[in-house]
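Blinded run. Sample ID left blank on purpose so nobody reads anything into the name before looking at the predicted structure. Input follows.
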Amino acid sequence: MSTSPPDLGSPQLLTLVAELGSLGQAAERMGISQPAASKRLTLLERRLGLTLVNRDTRGSVLTTEGKAVCQWAGRVLAEVDSLMVGVAALRGDRAVDLHLAASMTLAEHFVPGWLGTLQRNSPDVYVSLKVTNSEQVAALAASGRIGLGFIEAPTVPSGLDSRQVGGDRLVVVVAPQHAWARRREPVGPAELARTRLIVREAGSGTRETLERVLAGSGVERVRPLMVLDANAAVRRAVAEGAGPAVLSAVTVQEDLAEGRVVEVPVTGADLRRRLRAVWPKDRPPTGAVGELLRIAVRTPREDPSGSTGPAAGQGSGATPPL
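Blinded prediction complete.
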């Protein structure tokens, strides 16, 4: 069976469905109607001869084949981005090119505000942002394919410099009907390790932080009930009663406020973590990269534990040195 290559919009749509867990939200992100997105996805499946997405009233979830195609599509789209960056540089039609990558939690809740400030200060800056997990962000930074990355992983790989840009904490959440929602005693590390949890994929900062916390408490590593590669998919699975999950507090704050999920108290485990900017050691942040880093460090934000102030570890005075 011969297969003609799909147009680039179709792989982009598939990666957005994987990220957002919703065909409608993916269509909105691309600026097209949901019927047009559905038609495009159906055409892609027909062209490849594969079922890529299972769709129902609760959302859209990639099949096993869809996840494989999505991973390959991500590499294709990254190469296309590199091509267009190179073409723009040859044309000289961009004042400044700023290539970034961020983990999902940072991309959803922190980076947009920083970029808004940067655009107001420097309207000629052209920004390209790739959203992926922390492991891939670090790999992109180490290879020099981005000028700055934002990760939530507990460690920084060798070959990279870093700067803390904020703080976050993980929370255990369940559906309101789950037995843990009514318990009086907090959950400890040993019970967490024994419980089948809905977790993010290997390479995500949330998954790595959880596993390091459990290992540091002397208990075995988590045994996943489900492995999902998007925060939105994990949140939906928890709300539907599939099981407990550990997610960033900022990611689930709206679900908590509206009663779709319930936070379970935890004892004996420090689930706080640092949010970091990373960059290659041989390419210190200068120009637009340095300006964005200063904005990220100085921007006040609400801490998930309840206090409000500038990025953790930073004051509110002069621009921090880089």
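Unblinding after everyone has recorded impressions. The chain has a mean pLDDT of 84.
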